[in-house]
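Late entry, written up from scratch paper. The run itself happened at the end of the previous shift, but nothing got recorded in the book at the time, so transcribing now.
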Amino acid sequence: MNKAVDAHKTIVRLVRYAASHSAVFMDAVEGGVTFHSGANRPPRHFPLDALEKACALGLVVRDGNRIRATSEARAFLRRALLASEDAFQEQHRDTENRTVSVDGIRQTARVNALESPLGAIARLKEKSGHAFLPPEALAAGERLHADFTRAQLQPRLTMAYEPRLASKTKGGAGGTADLCDTALAARMRVGKAMEAIGPELCGVALDICCFQKGLELVERERQWPVRSAKLMLRAALMALARHYAPPRSASRHSHVWGAEGYRPDASGLAAGSVTGI
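Output as recorded:
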């Protein structure tokens, strides 16, 4: 392990011991110092250079043989705790920077691919080595998931003691009248997306992108052949990508380029067609 990391952890333990006791006394021993408090707790041994570093950082104050944590010590310990939590979580992350659209504004966000509903599928490769899901299909699936979340359509995992939504009046509490404009707009976008995908494919898009079901689970629930769900999903997301970014149609107007001094020939126009306007 890195010596700098070990030294930092030792300082953290030293500062934590000093901050957790109202009175800490120090005894010099060979190779370092020993801390002990008035409580019935075993003493702790620390290297002398760790104590000197903590004093230099302003984390502890040495007054004779007494050690006292400063006001900066608690902030230092909070930062050290957060750093250790991030280090643990990074072991279970596959983060990357992606460009996302939030309320029409494109910005860069750091995304954990392992938490994405399409994270595992996005790593699938074709025999040629190309990604199984094209970038536009992957972006369409994540956009559908974002709208589904904003629309507050996720199933509730906690018990609800209020009446079911279907039994409420349109303007009653907890009905659509309680939804904000953002949620209502998101519900409309989800509905239009389902219409664009079509009734044959919208179910697999909802299951995987929104309800975050795995491919094998979808195949079992729908009694589909093995490895068919990913093909259906790709077809659904390609249709959804065309819905979000329709292909540009060819212009109906033809353009004719002429040399300098070119004038169109109007001799072919019937005289009646001109005078009759």
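The longest helix spans residues 72-90.
(Scratch paper discarded after transcription.)
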